[in-house]
Design goal:
Layout: H1 12-26, H2 38-45, H3 49-61, E1 65-67, E2 73-75, H4 81-100, H5 104-117
Antiparallel strand pairs: 1-2
Helix pairs in contact: 1-3, 2-3
Length: 122
């Protein structure tokens, strides 16, 4: 069940996006599941339709869902979306490191330091 906390410092679209990713990752939502319409979900959650539309756009860009025109939006099949997005980020980072000509051991040290220094996500 999706819940938007209006008192949270996290924007509502991000709360929705994160909860849908978690639902896919845990198997609560499976490939082929149809998502509620933008207007319907916005009404259920008490948010603006643009909030839901933005979350859906970001999920589609991350290949978590796909929109099939008038048929609606559906959970995509394939990899766990969190792992797939992390893999794409790692591939982009590795390509940037190669372009810069940096040593892979230095690159790994930068990543380890960044992960230690960044705040944990809730």
């Amino acid at each position: 069940m999706i819940v938007i906390d209006p008192a949270s410092p996290t924007p509502p679209f991000e709360q929705l996006r994160a909860q849908l990713v978690a639902a896919v990752s845990t198997g609560e939502l499976v490939p082929g599941d149809r998502l509620p319409t933008v207007r319907g979900l916005a009404e259920d959650l008490g948010v603006a339709p643009g909030t839901v539309a933005r979350a859906y756009r970001e999920l589609e860009a991350a290949a978590v869902i796909e929109t099939r025109g008038r048929k609606g939006s559906f959970v995509r099949g394939g990899d766990d979306p969190v792992r797939a997005q992390a893999r794409r980020a790692a591939e982009a980072y590795a390509e940037q490191i190669r372009l810069l000509g940096l040593d892979p051991d230095d690159a790994l040290a930068f990543v380890a330091a960044a992960l230690r220094e960044s705040p944990k996500l809730a």
